[in-house]
Each structure stands twice: as C-alpha cells, then as structure tokens.
Amino acid sequence: MIVVLLSVFLLAADQYSDKLKPVRNLLSVLVYPIQYVVDFPSYFMNNLLGSVDSYDALLRENKALKQQQLINDSRLLKFAALEKENIRLRSLLDSSFKLGEQVLIAEMLAVNLAPYEHVVVVNKGNRFGVHVGQPVLDAKGVVGQVTKALPLTAEVILITDPNHAIPVQVNRNGLHTIAIGSGQLNKLSLPFLPNNADIKPGDLLITSGLGGVFPQGYPVATVESFVEQPDKPFAVIQAKPAAALNTNGELLIVWSNSQVIPLSKTLAEQNNAQD
Amino acid sequence: MPKISLSILLSYWLTIFVAMSLNILPLEGAWLIAMPDWVLVALIYWALAEPESASVGKAWLVGLLVDALTGQLLGQYALAYSVSIFLCIKQHKRIRQFPIIQQSLFVCLILFGAQFLIYWIESFSHQDMPVSFWLPVLTGGLAWPVVSFILRKVRHL
Asked: How is chain B split into domains, by residue range?
C-alpha cells in the first residue's frame, strides 16, 4: 500500500515538475554499470576489429582521409570567405547573423531502452556540460535532441520517434513545414502540406531554425514520396532522414551560440558606449 | 524476522543485474518486440522461492532502477513491479504446488497485470500502443520454465 502511494506520488512529481532530478541522477549513476556491461561486447568487437586491420589497409585509409581532408580544407576556405561576405551583406541589410556552433563528440552506447521509443544513450552527460534541449547531429545530418542529461550519460530522442517533430524547410524554395517521426528509422512524415505544395521527391529538407532548438541550415532528410490525396486537405509526404540513424557511431552534441554578431561597427560602438 | 542468508541476497541482486542487462540488449525487429520483461520474471521467481528475502520493498527499488535505466517516468515500473510481487508473495504457497504449466499461466497473468499498469501509465503521455505491445506477456510465460530452472540452479549453488 505504502509503495503504491509512493509510486503514484513519484509518477505525478516526475510528470509535472523537475524536482526529482537529483533522484534520477543518483539512480542513473547506479544503473550506468549495466549499460556499460551491455555496451561492452560491441565496443570490444570494434576495438578488436580495429586492432587487427592490416598495415596496408590502414595506409590506404590514411591516404584516402588525407585527400578528403584536403578537399574539405579547400571547401572550408571558400566557405570562410562566403561567411564573411554573408555577414557583411547582412550588416548592410541590417539583419543579424548567428555565430558558429560549438560541438562535443559523443559516442552512442549499444543499448536499447524501450521498444516503442527511438531514444538512444550517449556516453557524455552533465559532467561535460550537456543539457536538455541540445540538438544532436552526425556527419550527414540532424539526429535528434537531448531529452535527459544525466551525470554520466545523456538520452537523445531521434527525429524518427513518433513523439518528435522538427521544423524544416525545403532547401530549393524555402517552403516551411514540420517533419514528424514515423516510428521507423528510415522514415519521416510531413503531414501538414497541402496537395498543391511545391515539393517533390528528391528535395532536400533542412532545419528552418524556427522553434529555437535546432540551428538553421542543417540537412534533415530528402523527400522520398509525394502522394496527392484529392479527397483530403493534406498530401501524404514521406522523407528519408539524412543522418545514419541505424548505425551507432559518433554523434555531435551542439552548443548553438545564441548571441548574435553585432551588425555593424557603429552598433557595436553604441553598445560599448552604453556599457 | 527471519534471518536472510547472504548468499541468497547476493544471488538475488546478481540475477536482477543480469535480467536488467538482458532488458536493454540492442536487438532488432521481432526479437526486440517479443522480448519478455526479464526483470519481472526474475522478481517473480524470487518472490515465489524466497518470499522472506524478496520483499515488496526490494521489488519497488528494482522497479525504480529500471525506470532510471529505461528513461521512463520515475515510478512506472516501480508501481507495476511492487503490485505484481505483492500478489506473488500473497499466493506463493499455492503457486509452488502447481505443475510447471500452471505456473506459466500464473506468470502470464501477473505479467499481464504489470503490462496493463504500464499501458495505463503510458497512455497519459504517449499515443496508442500497437497490439504487439502485449506480446512480451506471452513470451514471458513461455520463458518461465527455463528461467525458473536456471534460477533454481543459481539459488542452490
């Protein structure tokens, strides 16, 4: 009887407030060894496979990576120039420009929490400054956002979770909409676009930056199918996430800098004068 | 109060630890959906075999740990586990006399009750669960003879 009352009280408290955070933190530290043990075999296998790679293969990989790095570097040079130009133009237009983001690399643990939720655990938590609501990316696109930041780990909800929605825009024409998780790792649905919307298979969807969680301009998904429904107000549109959600590897947890660059020198000077 | 032997306590927590690890194994597809709740099955075994040492309070604590482990609302599994274990301890004398098939049915019943509580709590925050949400109840019952056999070996180690 007592434990039932206590459980109900806990449920209510956890649902409606965040007072229980220290309790959850403590418990999460207690169960961390379990997650570690479950993750260990795959971690061990990866290490083993890495250490028995042949010298030749490593050499080849190194060469390929160096070439890739060179290409990326040259692209980055161009990008830096473009960014400067963008800031300059925006300052002419009197609009603001967001600063670059800072990232932390985290590794996904090979554990599976609940069968009907797309939630993954990563090996960086509070102690690294991770906090709730941070966007999580991988090399190819948006993965999800942090839902729980625990001392040693953090839980990340994927964009394909049925309870997750992400504001996106079509890269080709700037059309805004919302992409909702479908519960399948390779599918997102866009349920709020009319039948005559200007969107077609192959379109790239990027984050629109609305909603304030995800920074603007990261690839989210590519449109896969567009089915008109003449008898219904909205079309059925499905998209394939850009990020590799079904492989567990490294993820980037992003700190998007919410401070904007001062628009022009005059404005900055005004601010200084006020200070 | 009866004296609880240290070895029982040790094997209790050890098996619970293993069951928790099994619960979060990274499986795919049908395996994942059909995975029984190993922790609850193990708890039921201990409640029937050692009702003095496997108390409702311990079940509650284990439930709380599972809540933290799976990132659910705190208290969800705690509630389900403690209610199920309370029933098991109440009935343990009768259940022990049952043949193994009947025990499996009883375990199914308890698992169903626990799953129903979880369903009820999840329905506050989530959308509807698919029918396969109830599959672990059946597989848990099927797994019972094996689990009880293994745990008996562990207990008499």
From this structure: 6-155
